Amino acid sequence: MKILLKYTLIATVLLVIASCKDDFVNVDNPLAISTSSYPTTVTDLEQLLAGVYATQHAGGIFGRAMGPYSTHLWDHTTDLSWQGSPNWIQMGQNNALPSDNFLVQIWPDLWRGVQRSNTLLAGIERVSATASEADKANIQLIKGQALFLRAWYYSYLVSFWGESFIVNGAGGEKMGVPIITTAAADLTETQVSRSTVKECWDFIISDLKSAETLLTGKTWTSATDKHKVGQWAVKGFLGKVYVYTEDWANAKTYLSNVIKESGKSLVSFETYKTMFNGQNEFNSESLYELNMNVDMTYAGANDLSMGSMMATLAGPSYVGATGTPIASAWSNVFPHSKNIARFGFNLGHYFPAGTTTANISNVDQSYVTKSITARATKTVDPRLWVACLQPYVDSMVVAGAKKPISHFLDITELDMEAWSFRKYINLAGTELEINRANGSNILWLRLADIYLLYAETLTHTGDNPTALEYINKVKRRAYNLPVDAPSAVDYKSLTDVTKAPDNVLKNDPLKYERWAEFFGEFNWWFDVCRWKIGDKEAAYYQKIRGGTIQWDATDYAQPIPINEINANTNMRQNPGY
């Protein structure tokens, strides 16, 4: 989606001047915009709104850190080829520290999103006071989006740093994060204590309910507006939050409403397998996606950039001129080898036992033949090849030429399944060819998620047959079958066998489908936390290349960064750190 809006700097400038009195911070900046003249119009508010959206792909969020520096480490979606960062290894072992360099990036960027939302909401009140009747309707739409986005940032803050999810009705009294609704005017206003987990989720729900009212009936259809929050994004997000807080009655109401009234439908498998790579954006399955664009001016991980740098960290390895692997980008992370087996892949290894050099000339060609057959016959979950690139079977384009995917560079263990990621990767070139600013939209909330959340809700509200049907709808699409018709691949019960070999997912279709459908999409860690299966997951994955995975009950919550502990005298650290 090509939307060339870069108003983040305006939001930053306004945040500084709106949140500082003369005795708080005195910055002599001749380029600063005075609050006496900004914002005063709906156009000004739209500019600030663009900045709130842009913060979603700041470096500490989806510009780089979300996934490779956070969730994908904690839930072991990834393993590390790069062994030069001890704190990165520790995160993959579930041993994050308050001084962790990556968490120190994530925390302030999420709070920047909250503060920019608050600054916009304050600006809305100011402009509304003198707005014409014609402008007031547009202002209400801007306010609805701002409330949704504030809830969005808060959902990550409480999910990452809240002491617990609400599980079986317990945990709501534990520590969440501070609730802040205004920009601080002096240092004393930054000394805010943590609210409870329940208070945080209630605050998120309140913002979303207000957004629902303000955005009732609103859908965005023009090319420049499709990225904006509409009514079904709000309702879908509310349904998800109600599942996360185990409010099954409200979850059922909202999720059912999205399914029956939104007009959304699962896309075909052919569309599904390409929609994570910059194609088929804003399709019939998408409820809310983060708009990204290739940016040749600003690299990813920069608020001014329109793209994301996440794929630079996960870029594939391919076969070079001499037959050995070459990294297409930084290529620091690759799919944990245990994930390949979880999709049902058990066809051996592309290198025969005893191979000493990662070279295409050493590949077992019978393995390639078996793999191609498995794809055709669907004896392995087809989503494996949507999420991952298989060495010496799949390919990518490098400088206009097709290159086979190789054993992942820097993985000296030649008996390890060292595949590459496929979702959110530039398949038409390397990440360096697009300035490390990948333009693939992030499909943050889509109908398959709604279906599986609805199925989970139905298991808690006494309708297991319908729950099973919605699980099967998602599976049928994965096997390129009609979604609404019974099929040979259907699960026969909620405890039927899946493709997974492990005790966590082997006889749990709901959990397996959430894992397989969203592999590489930033969802699984939150399921691990709310289902309290972290210890079981750690036992399955056992280790990363840097060492043994060590699990403690307190690992569901991340440590509050030490910078925040030092700056806020009322901030309390999470237990275990």
UniProtKB/TrEMBL annotation:
- Print the keywords alphabetically: Cell outer membrane, Membrane, Signal
Q: Where is the signal peptide?
A: 1-18
* Subcellular localization(s) per the UniProt record: Cell outer membrane
- According to the entry, every stretch annotated as the SusD-like N-terminal domain falls at 37-242
Please report the stretch or stretches of sequence annotated as the RagB/SusD domain.
419-577
Main location (coarse class): membrane
Q: Please provide one cellular component term from the Gene Ontology annotations of this protein.
A: cell outer membrane
Q: Which domain of life is it from?
A: Bacteria
Homology family:
Belongs to the SusD family.
Q: State the protein's name.
A: RagB/SusD family nutrient uptake outer membrane protein
Organism this protein belongs to: Dyadobacter pollutisoli
